[in-house]
Amino acid sequence: MRAVVVAASTALMTILTACCAAWRIRPFLRRHMPQRQQRRFLTASLSTPPQPSNNNKKVHNDAQHLFSVAPMMEYTDVHMRHLWRLLSAESVLYTEMITTNTLVRCDDPARYLEANFAHEEPLVLQLGGNEPATMRQATAMAAAYGYQEVNINAGCPSDKVSGNGCFGAALMLQPDLLADLALSVGDALGRPATVKCRIGVNDADSYAGLAAFVDRVSTRGHVRHFIVHARKAVLGAKFSPADNRKIPPLKYDYVYDLVRDFPHLRFTINGGINTLEDARTHLARGVHGVMVGRACVNAPFHWRHTDTALYGAAADPNFSRREILTAYAAYAQTQEDRHGRKLRSTLVKPVLQLFAGEPNGRLFRNQIDVHLRRVDLSVQEVLLQAGACLWDAVLDLRAADPPPTYLTGDGRARSANAEAEAEAVSP
């Protein structure tokens, strides 16, 4: 009897707690979701979601690398790449880094090489490793799977990679080994490898040292394209990858000087590029391409003008965020049907910052988290029901539209052009 009473008391307390929580947020909801703007997202969803452009026609050529999305662990997976193609048909996309040992020893290579080439091209596979024979074998597997371009990671500063793994940024201290790895890629793929690196490592950070590194790797390894993060890497457990993205100063002049001193090579600049205007500034200095990482994750919709602004395309994909969310939700559902509910957190991750800086953008992320816990909702329903908290003016903005101005709770005007606002979670 006592156990029954305890159980009933516990259930009652749970209900009361939930009711109190709901009561407390009522003023917030009234302030941020005026009744006239509360639209059911599901009723406005498209009957036929837009699909990414088919990029089979894209050829891996030098000019295509004008803009690229950086390889980022736990971010640039097949799902984020699917979302990105709804924003840009021209950008070059990169996979997450895959270690060569993992690839050649696994029982299911498709787990790491999965890609929808019809939608994702141009797509570059990034490999990490320090054994030429294994690099050749991994590249051959990737080529058989359909990859046409392979990049070697010589810039990752994490202790797991550059310390215990002895690759990543540590390869900058062994240019001959890096050149041999590049030759292995070229032999297996039939085209030269590209290399992503830093401007230096630890105290070996002079321009003369960087120029010597580029000369050696390009001459011996037949590398013709370097993607250079304009910071040095500080190796060691006391300096985290996040520290390496922020603390070492950016030295863009090093990359500009490489363009001047090696006119037969191509250089893409990376590091600290947060807007399209930043990208234009670097391209005006003569670099052959720009690569953007965290800013693409933190505010993906900001880059919706990439095709027209950088490539001179006649038009951008021009989907509204309602259309993008609807299309991505449909895609996510196909993935959940195929792989099961275990993938749900991974599937929602690419859209978490789609409304960064917008009214109720933070509430949208919170609603995704709340709905994910419901066993009665599919992942498609999770995303679309979370979108119900967003204003129509936010959902229906297109690339070609001017950014609207909203009125805040105190009556002041607030521009919508705030995609990279501080509320975006920096990964």
Can you give a write-up of this model?
This protein is of the alpha/beta class. It folds into 2 domains: 31-47 and 319-415, no CATH class; 62-310, TIM Barrel, CATH 3.20.20. It contains 21 helices and 10 strands. It has helices at residues 2-24, 26-32, 41-44, 78-85, 100-105, 110-113, 117-120, 132-145, 159-164, 175-189, 207-221, 241-246, 252-261, 276-284, 294-298, 306-310, 321-339, 344-348, 361-372, 379-386, 392-395, and strands spanning 67-69, 92-99, 123-128, 150-154, 194-198, 225-229, 266-270, 289-292, 405-407, 413-415. The strands form 2 sheets. Strands 1-2-3-4-5-6-7-8 form an 8-stranded parallel β-barrel, surrounded by 4 helices. Strands 9-10 form a two-stranded antiparallel ribbon.
